[in-house]
């Protein structure tokens, strides 16, 4: 019986991106199938955040293809890709500090017009992140770092994405909070959300992901199942300590 291969939800082909006058990405190829968790591993400055920002259309490529759900998104605007089903929880959380937790979640649903559904999804986020429910009327700027990260993820989920881009979700957090965040990420995959994860903790990222790509100086140098990358001596030496 012939194996049925699911088409990629996202496919990147020969992507070249300049950032601040420097070539940040060179001929990057990668794909993500529906339901996968895929991680980008690499040192600071390797181009991981640039990749996510290009997918979410905050940066324009010099050349190359971005194919999402069978259609090119190279010429799309950021709000258009959100409507198509791509959501981005950026590095550094970027919550609206002078707005409440509830306001942040409502703003995460700015592309949606059916208010009862938005209200139901807010309650769903409060079930997923009980700490946010306790602080729903609190200003986001007064939350702890871990709570702000939870809010950034919850806000990104308010657009009901098919593809969630997570950039450094553990950055600056205590180990116990990191475990909690990654437990939430593991649970998200059971809801059908596809995840592209950029994470400084390569060991934890590869333990969580199905597949991984190693990005060095803007180029993909290694790819494969996450379990294989975890056992790869080059990866161990460079990223796993």
Describe the 3D structure.
- A six-stranded mixed β-sheet has the order 6-7-8-3-9-10, with helices on both faces. The protein has a four-stranded antiparallel β-sheet with strand order 2-1-4-5, with helices on one face.
- Strand 9 and strand 10 form a beta hairpin.
- Helix 3 runs parallel beside helix 6.
- The protein contains ten helices and ten strands.
- The chain is α/β, with parallel strands linked by helices and 241 residues long.
- The longest helix is centred in the last third of the chain and has 15 residues.
- It has a domain of 164 residues: P-loop containing nucleotide triphosphate hydrolases (Rossmann fold), CATH 3.40.50.
- 38% of the residues lie in helices and 25% in strands.
CATH class of the domain at 10-93 and 161-240: Alpha Beta
Percent in helix: 25-40%
Approximate strand percentage: 25-35%
Task: Classify the secondary structure makeup into a structural class.
Answer: alpha/beta
Number of strands: 10
Number of helices: 10
């Amino acid at each position: 019986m012939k194996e049925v291969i699911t088409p990629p939800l996202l496919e990147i082909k020969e992507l070249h991106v300049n950032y601040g006058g420097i070539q940040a990405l060179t001929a990057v190829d990668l794909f993500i199938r529906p339901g996968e968790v895929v991680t980008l591993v690499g040192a600071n400055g390797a181009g991981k955040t640039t990749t996510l920002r290009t997918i979410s259309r905050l940066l324009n490529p010099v050349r190359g293809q971005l194919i999402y759900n069978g259609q090119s998104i190279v010429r799309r605007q950021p709000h258009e890709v959100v409507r198509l089903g791509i959501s981005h929880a950026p590095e550094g959380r970027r919550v609206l500090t002078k707005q409440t937790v509830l306001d942040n979640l409502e703003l995460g649903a700015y592309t949606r017009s059916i208010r009862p559904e938005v209200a139901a999804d807010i309650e769903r986020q409060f079930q997923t992140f009980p700490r946010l429910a306790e602080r729903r009327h609190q200003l986001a700027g007064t939350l702890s770092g871990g709570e702000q990260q939870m809010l950034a993820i919850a806000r990104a989920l308010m657009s009901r994405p098919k593809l969630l881009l997570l950039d450094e979700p553990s950055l600056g957090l205590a180990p116990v909070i990191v475990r909690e965040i990654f437990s939430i990420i593991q649970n998200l995959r059971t809801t059908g959300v596809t995840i592209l994860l950029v994470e400084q903790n390569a060991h934890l990222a590869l333990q969580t992901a199905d597949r991984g790509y190693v990005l060095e100086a803007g180029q993909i140098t290694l790819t494969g199942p996450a379990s294989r990358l975890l056992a790869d001596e080059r990866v161990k030496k460079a990223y796993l300590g």
